[in-house]
Amino acid sequence: MSISASKNYDLAVIGGGVVGLWCAYLGAKAGLKIALFEANTIASGASGGLLGALMPHMPTQWYEKKQFQFEALIDLEPFAQQLEAESGIDCGYARVGRILPLSLPEHEIEAKQKCDAAAIQWARPNRNYEMRTVKKPTHPNWPHEDVMPHGATIDNFSARINPRGVTSALLRCISDKVDILENSPVELQADKSLKMPDGGHIIARDIIVTAGLNSFDLLQPFVPSLSGRPIKGQAAMLDTKLDPQLPVVHQAGVYLIVHNDGRTAVGSTSEREFEDGHTTDHLLEEVIEKARRICPLVGNAPVVERWASLRMQPYGRDPLVGPVPEHEGLHICTGGFKITFGIAHRMAAAVLAPIIGNPALEMPPSFQVENRVNHIFPRT
Ligand SMILES: Cc1cc2nc3c(=O)[nH]c(=O)nc-3n(C[C@H](O)[C@H](O)[C@H](O)COP(=O)(O)OP(=O)(O)OC[C@H]3O[C@@H](n4cnc5c(N)ncnc54)[C@H](O)[C@@H]3O)c2cc1C
User: Fold this and answer.
1) Separation of 46 CA from ligand 1 center, angstroms?
2) Cys-Cys crosslink for 187: which of 52, 166, 195, 353, Cβ 3.0 to 4.6 Å?
């Protein structure tokens, strides 16, 4: 879509990943006139992946951050249903649960504590979310008995979503309501106008910076103390034909997630040092081999896709959500790292609240921009 260089908006969203898409979707629902700027194509960054694990934090040592994620994981389910109904696109959401194998004797004691804590922290009226221990796999070779010598915990709260499904659904829902400008890497000027690659300027009353890795560069003139670092991740899709209701398996950093089409996503590496953030290599092959050993049910299914991208981990680890202090109209919403797909809709609702005049959503202190600008890092 082309727009005139002088066009004014209520809201400019910088970044078309899953977080920016949720911001545009919820902002448009609130009646805002929105432009969404994406440097490349929509969901071509970290959000264009394969896995989509929706994994709750452990229920022990509960505090605000875990509560925020818990509530987000609860209401993502109806949000996904609504998106599917509006867009006609399958988001690939299912609350399939998760198996965590226990490899050491001491894990059994911790597992019991987690199960007890889940009974308290995950309690909901009319829903029985629980974590329990099992001695044997609930499905043969998912995982292999040998990887769970001390049993496993299994829960019925964890879920999965198809990253490409949910971003496609969001895109379709906003496409006739939001000006979407792809191949438009914008620069944030000192006067808070947005400079387009062709030299044109866009004015918006409010701006949300949700540009993944680039968020901090864009905000450098305003809040130089905020920073983050890229962590490379690699994942693959195996051409299995498995039951899509199989639970997510997570063992020693390796995930196996069966999606609605019966294919199995496996991942991920976590690399702090790398030469190229977007190519796959032997580290992914090691993950795939581990995944085959953990869950022999995938057999020798061929790899149909290999994928790599950079997740952004902010300094202070947690997401940053809210207004930038002393810079009216400027907001940040970024940095969910490995859990973004489960919380992006809540991050978006929280950053939008003051923009659309809604009551503020309670935010964990560690997410609040002011704390991070002032180098206060509450428990993360
Ligand atoms: C291998 C791997 C596995 C993962 N697995 C999971 C998982 O199982 N579950 C989970 O929840 N999360 C997972 N994640 C993390 C998740 O994918 C990311 O945290 C999430 O996609 C980040 O979304 P985002 O919108 O913040 O960033 P991005 O998707 O990176 O979007 C930011 C966008 O901003 C654009 N941009 C940058 N600069 C500008 C500019 N100047 N102007 C306009 N646009 C700009 C970029 O092009 C990009 O498209 C995984 C990540 C990886 C790499």
Assistant:
1) 3
2) 195
